Amino acid sequence: MSKNILVVSAHAADWVTRCGGTLLKYIKMGYKLHVIILTFGIHGEARQYWREHPDGSLEDAAIQRRKELDAVAKFLDAEIECLEYEDYILTMDEPRIRYLIKRILEIRPEIVFTHWKEDTFNSDHATTSNAVIRAISAACRLGALPSVSPIEMPDIFLFESSLPVSLYNHFEINTYIDISDVYEEKINAVRCFSAQPELPGLYDPLATQRAKEANDWVRSERKIEKAEAFNRFIPYVGKTLPLSDHS
Fold first, then answer.
1. Band of pLDDT at residue 1, cut at 50, 70 and 90
2. Which secondary structure element, helix H or strand E, spans residue 14, and what is its range?
3. pTM above 0.90?
4. What are phi and psi of 124, to 5 degrees?
5. List of residues 6+ apart from 92 with CB closer than 8 A
6. What percentage of the chain reaches a pLDDT higher than 70?
7. Rounded Cα gap, residues 53 and 55, in angstroms
8. Burial class for 173, CB neighbours closer than 10 Å (0-12, 13-18, 19+)
9. Is the pLDDT of residue 9 over 70?
10. Stretch 167-190: mean pLDDT, rounded?
11. Peptide bond between residue 164 and the one before it cis (omega within 30 degrees of 0)
12. Average confidence score pLDDT of the chain
């Protein structure tokens, strides 16, 4: 039985730019990827569409974003569900959080990725993070959904906040993943988002910067070229320490 990874992303492209490389590595290890997109990002994250279609419509913008997600789903062999909520400003009320609880109980993920808990310049990201943590907490309780057993607490990893202003969001890195071997695949996935053609140029320097930081902690001659950074939200509990891979 394959293990499950759940990603909950505020907008269509957030998850690929922030953790696409790490996801590719786990997909290659046999994990099943489930992605819940809360919004297409048509109000605030489809700039190229609005440049090319100044008289366009929200409906047409959503169609383009759906096509982009379909392309990424095929590229990554991922199950993607877009809830099509309104973005800029995203709200998560009780019914919406309860739907997340239901989906978490159905997917039963071992690993969950979502946004960093703070984002001064994009409240949609922080709203998503808060909703996901609340939903996971509820899904771990007996009675969250009648006749459904609760999940065990998954490993939760929070990814980067908004660029280029992440400095102001107090992002706390305690985990680096070397994505050098899958980086080109990640960038090809990012390029699927034609409504945001600036993304490869924005996240390539970040991957290089995170690799430079990660190399400070590598005690071997191996050098990391590209990396992604995370905050491990749930403490590690095990019979041995989670020692770094220096091979």
1. low
2. helix 14-28
3. yes
4. -55, -40
5. 38, 127, 128, 130, 131
6. 98
7. 5
8. middle
9. yes
10. 95
11. yes
12. 94
* Mean pLDDT, residues 18-46: 96
Order of strands across the sheet with 4-9?
Answer: 79-82, 32-37, 4-9, 111-115, 155-159, 227-232, 175-178
Of 76, 95, 75, nearest in space to 85 by CA? 95
DSSP character string of 191-211: TT-TT-TTHHHHHHHHHHHHH
Range 138-145 average pLDDT: 94
DSSP for 134-186, written as a single string: HHHHHHTSTTSSTTSPPPPPPEEEEE--SSS-GGGGT----EEEE-GGGHHHH
What residue has token string 């946004």?
115
**Phi and psi torsions of 8, nearest 5°:** -115, 120
- State how far Cα 27 lies from the chain centre: 14
Residue 152 has pLDDT above 70, yes or no: yes
Q: Which residue carries 């430079």 as its tokens?
A: 212
